[in-house]
Specification:
This protein has about 150 residues and is mainly alpha-helical. The chain has 4 helices and 4 strands, in the order ααββββαα.
């Protein structure tokens, strides 16, 4: 029973809940950034590159090998893939790298803004603490002794 109680306390702690919320929001933010790159950033780049889709860029290591379909031995148009094509799809890597750079830039700007706000809060002058009744009494005694002496 102690382990279950300890686990419940662990889950109820604010840090775990905050982390879960951060992961969920991060996943949604990743989808937004992927859409931004795919639907907003890449089309103009593709236009500049004469309609080339960057994500389709690849280097073919080995072409596909086609063979006659054994179900249709007399039809030369019926072919099957005996060995698939082997590609290095570096276009996907470039697109993922661009996604990462955009996410990193946005996170950098958010953290920078938060740090700036924290610096402004830290720079505000702090009001001196209000003295307690005992401290007020001691101040009055000090002032009276200073007038006498």
């Amino acid at each position: 029973m102690g382990l279950l109680k300890e686990f419940r306390e662990f889950i109820a702690r604010g840090n775990v809940v905050d982390l879960a919320v951060g992961v969920i929001i991060g996943g949604a933010f990743g989808a937004i950034v992927n859409s931004l790159v795919k639907d907003v950033v890449m089309p103009p780049i593709s236009y500049i590159l004469s309609g080339v889709d960057v994500s389709s860029w690849k280097y073919t290591i080995h072409e596909a090998v086609m063979a006659q379909d054994p179900k249709f031995p007399d039809d030369p148009t019926k072919l099957i893939v005996a060995r698939p094509e082997v590609d290095l799809t570096y276009g996907n890597f470039l697109q993922a790298t661009l996604n990462f750079l955009i996410v990193a830039a946005v996170i950098f700007l958010v953290v920078k803004a938060i740090n700036t706000l924290k610096r402004h809060e830290a720079a505000k002058p702090v009001d001196p603490p209000v003295p307690s009744p005992e401290e007020k009494l001691l101040i009055e005694i000090r002032d009276l002794l200073a007038k006498r002496g």
